[in-house]
């Protein structure tokens, strides 16, 4: 796991999602603390951090078939992309 992927996993852990392992097919095994469930999230794509984008993005398929996008990066880049009410709550 890269340092950026580790940061995203740590952020998810603070929200109650603990990544247990990555299997041979690059599926992320995730334990949901609130419900005790263990779920499989399929990693679809990683857009690596670079100095132009100033962020890293991981795209997953959830167990329900939904697309989940996680993003980590500089506040100056991410904050303007949030909905207005989320911008106000971010700080």
Write out key terms for the chains shown.
24% helix, 91 residues, alpha+beta, 5-stranded antiparallel β-sheet, 3 helices, single chain, 40% strand
Fold topology:
Elements: H1 3-14, E1 17-22, E2 27-32, E3 38-47, E4 55-61, E5 67-73, H2 75-78, H3 84-89
Antiparallel strand pairs: 1-2, 2-3, 3-4, 4-5
Description:
The chain is of the alpha+beta class and 91 residues long. It has one domain. The chain has three helices and five strands. It has a five-stranded antiparallel β-sheet with strand order 1-2-3-4-5. A hairpin with a 7-residue loop joins strand 3 and strand 4. It is globular, with a radius of gyration of 14 Å. The N and C termini lie far apart (29 Å). The model has no long low-confidence stretch (mean pLDDT 79).
Gist?
The protein has 91 residues and is of the alpha+beta class.
Secondary structure tally: strands: 5
List low-confidence stretches: none
Q: Nearest-angstrom radius of gyration?
A: 14 Å
Q: How does the overall form come out from the CA principal axes?
A: globular
């Amino acid at each position: 796991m890269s340092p950026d992927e580790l940061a995203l996993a740590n952020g998810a852990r603070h929200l109650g999602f603990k990544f247990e392992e990555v299997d041979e097919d690059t599926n992320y095994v995730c334990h949901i603390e609130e419900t005790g469930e263990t779920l499989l999230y399929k990693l679809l794509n990683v857009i690596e951090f670079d100095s132009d984008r100033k962020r890293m993005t991981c795209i997953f398929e959830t167990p329900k078939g939904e697309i989940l996008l996680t993003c980590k990066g500089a506040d100056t880049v991410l904050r303007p992309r949030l909905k207005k009410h989320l911008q106000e709550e971010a700080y």
